[in-house]
Design a protein that fits this description.
285 residues; six-stranded antiparallel beta sheet
Length: 285
Amino acid sequence: MDEQPLQAAEINLHFPSLKLASVRGSAQVVERTEAFIRRHPMNSVAVFFALEGEAFFYHQGGFEALKPGQAVIYDVDRPFMRGFSSGLREMVMTVPHEDYLEITGGRALAKPIVFDFRQEQPDSRRAFTLARLVSDALSRSGDAESTEAAAFELLSAILVGDRSGTGASHLAAARCYITEHLGDIELNVAKVASAVGISERHLARLFNETGSPPSAYILELRLELARRLLTDRTEAQSPIAAVARRCGYASQAYFARAYKTRYGVTPSTERRAALAQPAERLVLH
C-alpha cells in the first residue's frame, strides 16, 4: 500500500474440510488476477471477518467498502483486489467449492455477499455465532468434527436458512450466548431460548440430544470458569465473592456448595492449594 515494509502474521488451522486463519498486518493490497488464478486455483469460497481496519474490495461486479464487524463471502477463484490503508486484523474461513454448493443447494457464488456479525440481534445472531465459533477454534483446540458441523450449519443458515432441520445452528447459537453471558445472574433457559429465537421446549430437546440439559450446561461452564479464576495466580487478590459474581452467582454460599459438589473441595481450599504450588518457570536452552 505504501513504501513501508509489509509486517504481517498469519495463524492457520486446518480441519478435514474447512481452513481457518487469523491474520494481522500493516497497510497492504491483496490481489488475485485471472492469470494468477489459472496458475494457482484454490477451488474455494472464503469468508473474511473484518475485526480491525476498513477495507476496499473490488470484484468483477463492482466495489464494496467493509468496516470492522462486517464479513464478506467471495469465490476466491474469481478475480478480486482487497486493500487496507491502515492495516488489518481479520479471521478467514475457507470452504471447498463442493461443500459450499452442498450447503446452498447447488447455488454458485457469482458475487460477494456482505453481512454484519457485530450485534446479537435476531437478524445477525447466527453470523455473530459463526464469528465466535471461528474465534474460539483459532484460540484453542477442539473437536474437529463438531466444529466443522456447526460451522457448516451456521453458514447454511446465514445463506439459505436452516435447511437440515437438525437444529445445529440453534444449538451453536445457544452455546455461544451462554458463554457470552455466564456472568449474568439472571441467565436461565428461558432467556437463552428467547435470545436464540426458539421455544424453551425446543432448546431443551436440542441440549438433551447431546446428553446434557441446558441448565446443566450453564452450571458446568460457570464452575469451569470459577475453577480457572480460582487457580489463576493473577486473580489471587479477587475475593471469593467477586469470583462468584463473575460466574453468575448472587449467593457466595450457594456458589460454595455447587463448587464443592462438583469438585469435592470448597473454593477457598481450591485457591489455597493452587497458590501453594510452585510457579512454573520458562527455561531457555
